[in-house]
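Open question from group meeting: does this chain pack into something compact, or does most of it stay loose? Before anyone orders reagents, we agreed to write out a predicted structure and look at it together. Recording both the input and the output here so the notebook holds the full record.
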Amino acid sequence: MSRQLKILEHALSGLLRRKYKNLTLLIAYTFTVAALGSVLFLTQALKTEASESLTEAPELVVQKLAAGRHDLIPIAYAETIRILPGIEKVTPRVWGYYYDALVKANFTLVGFAEKPRDLELLEGRMPGAADECAVGSGVAGIFGAEIGDRLVLIDAHEQDQLYEITGRFKASSSLLTNDLILLQENALREFFSMDRNLATDIAVEVYNPLEVSIMAQKVRFHLPDTRPITRNEILHTYDTIFNWRSGMMLAIAVAALIAFCMLAWDKATGISAGEKREIGILKAIGWETADILTIKFWEGLAVSLSAFILGLITAWLHVFTLGAPGLTPILKGWSVIFPTFELAPAVDFYQLFVLAFLTIAPYLACTLIPAWKVAVSDPEQAMRS
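Structure tokens returned:
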């Protein structure tokens, strides 16, 4: 152990003697790791948010199709679904999107006939009248609204509607309630001018979770103009979208990693005359090739590990403190018109291990191979180089 500590001390002193060269490498290395880490952190955080937001989602959602597009569904379809064996509960849902040109944000308006079981109030109470509403934290933040303030929305007839804010929501996933405006169902029908015999979709609960896909097939059979969507299909869609988008960004980041490896190889293979002389002297006074490689290993590990840690810290701050500017529009897509929300930190340690291997191992190879070539040569030739 004492011998290894002395070798490590010698390696660190060697890095300090070449501080400007190593500082250049450290900055480029840290930037590369930060770029890769930012994509991984943001993707994992978005996937976790999506997964948590769908925890309380219906096991099956039934939509009506018209010309291949989502259309309003007759409430009478709920009775057809309710009589199917294995169905526990059927609930027609009324909801829609509302774009506010003033704040340039898209909101989700949801109507309720009974208190939603999956929504929890942070403060205040649920709407008790047609002119009252409860909002998510993102809505309250973008308007600067508090409990008791009035929210102005423009309905389907281009008329201003005033709603008193009676409550603000909280949720384990901010994605679930961040852009939410909750109204009484009848009030929302009037706002959207929606027929009372129609709903946006139908939520279906099944007694046996293992039979959800079978129930979806039965619904499709009895109602051919509908599209049943299971919760697992929605989760799979989210994963696919985020993985595809992050894959595009990682492809660009990997190109940066390859460029960095070329830089590291160029710097490493361009061993200075002083370094060659140092290796030659060490060989001449009795140091073994393995000892010299150990020194270079500790030098490479010190630089690469420092850059990896600094890169991860930079990526963490970039994503979870600054909100990942530059990456967010690519990975979120059209959802950037929602009110902004803070991502909960989520880390996949397997991905970090792969990232460490892909960034540290190439640099160590770029450091050890040129040093080995000099170490196995004649010491006198090395000192005269």
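Observations to bring back to the group:
The chain has two domains: 2-53+237-384, 73-199.
The longest strand covers residues 87-100.
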